[in-house]
Amino acid sequence: MDRTDQLCRSVDLAVAAVRDAPVERYADPSPCPDFTVGRLVNHLAFGLLLAERSATREPWDETWSVDDDAPFLRGLRAEQWARACARQGERTASAWTDPAVWDGDSHLGGAAMPAAAIGSLMTAEFVLHAWDLAAATGGRLEVPAGLADAVLAGVAGIAPMGRDGGWFGPEVPVPADAPAFERALGLSGRNPSWRAPVSA
């Protein structure tokens, strides 16, 4: 599994997690303290759009704010979000299939970065948030070994910056011999044992 395959597989997992998140659970909490399930779906939607723009080098629209709904979700009912995310996921994955896209510099939301670093970061982002959605809605996420290794490497590369920027919480201790994806979860500040609260 090369880096293109890894990113495309991460997009597939994210889109599947959005599809499997029931709309009636959108107000529920998620492992990300700042996001309900619905806001997490929106965050993933924005990430899919950002990743496509990074691949195509199309500029970030200065009128966009990640605090708002993703542009392609605006005006849609929540029941339509999953299908819209699936369409955007296809565009995002397709944009990263050209090997040349990984070369040189690009941008992520306006911030200049090496394209390969963006691809690695977004691969980790999509899988981590797919797990967040699955955990929040009682589902399971199966991450292939090669992809899990890539996610761990991606998280390890940005963990200090992620904590400084508030994207990651404090590291959650995980056994050194735990599977790679569990170690990635812990390194990103997630508890691999997190479960959605049970309603009274």
TrEMBL record:
Pfam families: MDMPI_N. Coiled coil: none annotated. It comes from the Bacteria. Residues 7-134 form the Mycothiol-dependent maleylpyruvate isomerase metal-binding domain. This is TIGR03086 family metal-binding protein.
